[in-house]
Amino acid sequence: MLGPTGGPYHHPLPPNPVPYHDQVPTTSHPSWHTASYSGLPTPPYHPYPPPQAQPPPNYPPMPPQQHPPHLQMTSHQPQMTQLLTQQQLQQQQQIQQNQQQSSAYSSPSHAPSTPIQNQKARTEQWVQSWPYAQSPAPSVAPSVMSYHQNDDRMSMLSVNTSMTNQFPDSQRCFSSNGSTCENVNPEMAQTNWAQGAEQAIIEWFNTKDPQRKFNMAMTIREWVKRDKMVQVDPAQLPGCIQRLLLIIHDGMKPLQIQVPPNYYPQLWCYLLDVLNRLTSYRITIPNIHQIVQLFEPKGNQQYEFRDLICNAMQPTLVCAKQVFDILENIIKCLNNPKYDKLRSDFARSLKFEKMIGALLGLLSQQIPPSQINPTILVVLRFIISKDAVLKNCLIWGPDRQRDQVPPQSILMLLKGILMRSEHMLRNSQNANFPDQESMNRNFQEMSLLAQVVTRAFDLLNLLMHDSNAIDGFVKVDGIQLIYTIINYPISNVVRSGFKLLLQVSDSRSLCLTNLKEPLPFIMQRLRDSLMNGEDDIVYSGTGFLSNVVAHKLPVKELAIAKGAIPLLCDVIMRSTPLSDFAEASKKKLACGIVCNSLRAMNNFLMMWIPMQNGQRMPIGEYEQQQVRRFIEEVLKRLMTCLSMDSFDVVPLMELRSTILRFFFLVSRTPSMPADIFFGVTDDFKRKNLVGHIAIALSWADGQKTNEKIKDTRQQLIERAFSLLVRLIEQYDEVQVAHSLYTISCPLNMLNNEQMKPQFILNVLRVCDRILEHSPMLANGWSIYSSTVEMFKNHSNPDIARTASSLLARFPIGDSAMDEGILHTSEFTEL
């Protein structure tokens, strides 16, 4: 049984069940035997085998019907006929005779436009055709039919219930208006479908007749559609799914006998619809592993399912959409982390030459982008994910040279799709639509086109896995193509385009690209996204800007001339304070936006900082005013970020390290006043910059070291001491020393054997200056005198000299403290 034995929808089969091919419906209309399915041709099908001779049906006579009032002759008719010519009178009489003849056999509202004899002949021929006569539920009683106007299709009016009483009264429902029309009880119809599907599942592999298999597939599909597998016993559900999968696999195989050309597409539609529903019903998703196993290679088996399903991908077939719906449903289901292994197995099953060739063939230039199924790009992205060898093969082909992208590369294929898509978007934007229907049709087409462009960008983003691939994309005018497409205000397209821009922004070939047009436009789109609150686009845009201005001086000058510094200031002001964001994900994204903005500013500041040989680019008055205004507006916000409560260690560690790097470069920039470091305090803790640096330093030292934050933590500590040394040497060391009065001794950070010499020197210098202006701290810090003793004879003369100066500030005799105490001291937060 397909389901539980109880309930109104499932009853055990009778002791002598009616054979599948002898089941009798309660209506003789042929449409009862054919489950409706959009996209399939309507009956009659091509006869196979040759039609058998059937006696013509004898329709029961019907009583003559009265003419409707609008067809009856009135008293004014003789007067009107006198005004007509003899020829016109004959034509009118002929029309009236035709109306009288048609009224005896059809509804007045469906008068035939062709002679009844021809329509009757076509109807009898259709009824006697092979699909109707060989139906698993043949008709047993003629029905009264009405002709449709202009064709020979039939619609049911009534049924002779005395001849079709195949079910007891409890299973039948009668019309409430007292007519003789009868229908099957919907609840019992559900049971009939379940019983028919069960019989079809049992007899499938014992049947060689293609038409019977076709009807079985229709029955199974209709049952799955109606029942949704809900009534199946949960204990029997895996076995039921497995039997359905075996039937689907068998039905996709070619038959040994010849069948009509449209047989396979129609059969595949029913079978693949069943598989599509199995991948989408919530009750069957826990058994997704059975469907994944269906795609696995079976060794030397002649007809593997993964090979057969490639045959159904042809764009001319209706079932092609079902194939991609199935693949997309499986991929979405396997995105769950608990299916990681199953996801890898499914990707491995799809990774074979015929599948990849079929997918790439569907992206050819002969297909308009609006007719491309977006799922094709999703499946390709799923297959090549985490496979660098396959990515290189698709990009470069068999050639090992990586200096030029070959014409058959997937990059060129996607570029062609994007270029044709941009052409369609431009035409749609400039088009004038005559009516609302045309406008709606264009809207649907552009929505599908936007999905194609978005997923093409996502696939390109995945293909940019190394510097060679990125350079190859940039060399084929990839930047120009992206900025042209994101000109159209489609949010998903703009979002994916900016992600791709960020991915290719550190290309070596970008220095050879003319950015006079793309860069100002990208900055304007960044402003628009900032005003619209599109934080993900702002993140990608600021990341692109920080990378693109990193090396080439003309690009930096172009960005500054187009207002990059005020733009970055607005971005930081809108992304801070971080406490305004309630969700942790929003705070994390804001940290990334501020980091990208500060990195871009750092690249600008590097232009005006003197190099080791003393040469530097002079800073102009306009640029100097912009930098000062930037610092004045964001200084308090950045200080707050250094000392705010921790919410997520990894992004906050990166943000604080970037802020310290920014302040260090500002301190080295000429013409920057000292009051920006000491004269400004925040509105919460009332501390200047040095006080916030001390808090960030204590916070970083107190974090537990792990692989995620190990390098960033050490980088933050090194940048903090570099900035403190810079403030001590170039500005006011007294204020720095007094601001660090309550800090715990930094000498406990010198217990790592892999420390950089510059970091050791900076720590010793800061400690020496603090003890110089606060000698009362020497007694507490003297427990680290043994650590300082190790650097007294260091090979670096600056380290040795600073260590000796620091030892002289410790009390005499305290250098013999127990070595174990050196490693027990911890930083205490202010």
TrEMBL record:
What InterPro entries is this protein classified in?
Answer: ARM-like, ARM-type_fold
Q: Which stretches does UniProt call biased (Polar residues)?
A: 24-39, 114-125
The record ties this protein, via Gene3D superfamilies, to: Leucine-rich Repeat Variant, Sys-1 C-terminal domain-like
Q: Which domain of life is it from?
A: Eukaryota
Please list where the region (Disordered) is annotated.
1-125
> What spans are recorded as compositionally biased (Pro residues)?
41-67
- Stretches of Low complexity bias are at 77-113
Could you tell me what this protein is called? Uncharacterized protein
